Amino acid sequence: QVHLVESGGGLVLAGGSLRLSCAASGLTFGIYAIGWYRQAPGKERELAAAISSGGRTVYADSVKGRFTISRDNAKNTVYLQMNSLEPEDTAVYYCAAGSFITTQAVGVNYWGQGTQVTVSS
């Protein structure tokens, strides 16, 4: 059974940093692309960042230069380092694994349960 478990969310002041982790089990982690999606109340889900099995990364324009996605295949874990956080980054952040990752989540096979990130001004 596949599990994706996010951690690292919390409450932070604007300008602060958080590092999210997504620990995977039950799948051949290294062959999957991983994405971090986020959804704020009343807003559509947004792909914040993604990393391919080969390490290629993509970012939403709204997080470029502030967020960094990385993966450690030996630990079956993907990280999202979030710096210079803004109140607009407040959302539930979900980890997703699939053969490929798109903004519409086409190709996603597995989802985590989500972790709340709240940025106060």
Characterize the biggest β-sheet: 7 strands, mixed
Determine the mean pLDDT: 97
Q: Give the total of beta strands.
A: 11
| Share in helix | under 10%
Content of β-strand: over 45%
The helix/strand series, from N terminus to C terminus, equals EEEEEEEEEEE
Q: What shape does the CA trace take? A: globular
Instruction: Name the assembly state.
Output: single chain
Unreliable stretches covering 5 or more consecutive residues: none
Helix/strand/pairing category: mainly beta
Count every helix, treating DSSP H or I runs of 4 or more residues as helices: 0
Protein described:
It is a single chain. The protein is globular. The protein has strands spanning 3-7, 10-13, 18-25, 33-39, 46-51, 57-59, 67-72, 77-82, 91-98, 108-111, 115-120. The strands form two sheets. Strands 2, 4, 5, 6, 9, 10 and 11 form a seven-stranded mixed beta sheet that branches. A four-stranded antiparallel beta sheet has the order 1-3-8-7, with no helix packed on it. The termini are far apart. The protein contains no helices and eleven strands. With 121 residues, it is an all-beta fold. The protein is 0% helix and 52% strand.
